[in-house]
Amino acid sequence: xxxEPLGIYLHLPFCVGKCPYCxxxxxxxxxxxxxxxxxxxxxxxxxxxDPDAAVDTVYFGGGTPTLLAPALxxxxxxxxxxxxxxxxxxxxxxxxxPESITQAKLAELRAAGFNRLSIGVQSFDDDVLTALxxxxxxxxxLAAIAAARATGWDNLSLDLICxxxxxxxxxxxxxxxxxLDCRPAHISTYCLTIEPGTEFGRRQAAGEMVAVGEExxxxxxxxxxxxxxxxxxxxxxxxxxxxxxxCCLHNRKCWQAGSYVGLGAGAHSHVGGVRWANAPDPQRYxxxxxxxxxxxxxxxxxxxxxxMDEELVLALRTAEGASLARLGARCGRDATSEYRIEIEELAxxxxxxxxxxxxILTERGMALAxxxxxxxxx
Length: 378
Hints:
three-stranded antiparallel sheet; globular; TIM Barrel; Arc Repressor Mutant, subunit A; alpha/beta; 378 residues
């Protein structure tokens, strides 16, 4: 049987500084650390990737990939392209922040083969950007978008954050209007979560910061959903909107429980019900590869039930919902029978629609997806 195409994720954990809300695996690099890490990453490409693998999505995330020199990013992409069978129409994404984006840099990345750009705008309101500890202002965000347009990036995505302490609903609506004025192919909207271990988490624990209330968060979520859908964007996943035909193929692969290989410090992979993760510390990661060892620190083979639970939760995040037949066939179990009680409860509560073949969350269910996931996994 023909294997499904892989997605490849490359993690570049370097930023100018740590944002106070960020719990991603990122750090400020020391002297020479970026080049050394890039060599290790290229080494992992050679050790990990199967030369016979077909690959249709490549995603450079971080961190701030555009902090790195375009030539270095091009070198890493070339290492992937030389190692695997990269589809001629592969989606190749690079993330970047406005302050690290220039027209010249974007032109080089386009020439190297990158064809999708995701910009971490977060807000078009300078007060909100300051509250988030971002290093750019609204003018820089607009300049980065203009630079992308000038260099031919038609597959452009903007990341936005709402539910920031002190942010008003009207400020959020204004950011949505500005994003729509830019008419990107894709918009991701995330409600801020204050995570332990972050600067925001410490402030909250000390009583110096209070998270936005659930009612305000829900109002902001619905404002995004309704305004973006009215503007012609498909709400294809809880936090993601796209013009028709412009969804993020790499992330959709993850939500559909497809196969993807993560390369880089702390990167996660999933292939055929087996998942693993790399050592999160960039220096440890680099040292292992310099010694010729794969940097894996965790491996798990999912049980059929665990795999089915996780695939159901992921599928329910999407507009298409979960096909019970597909779910059962992939996991070798009777999904209709196994989830009968949960599906009935969701339908009775108005959180999902179910016709015996497919389960789809309602608008209210989408807003409560995290709580529903906890219920399913329990």
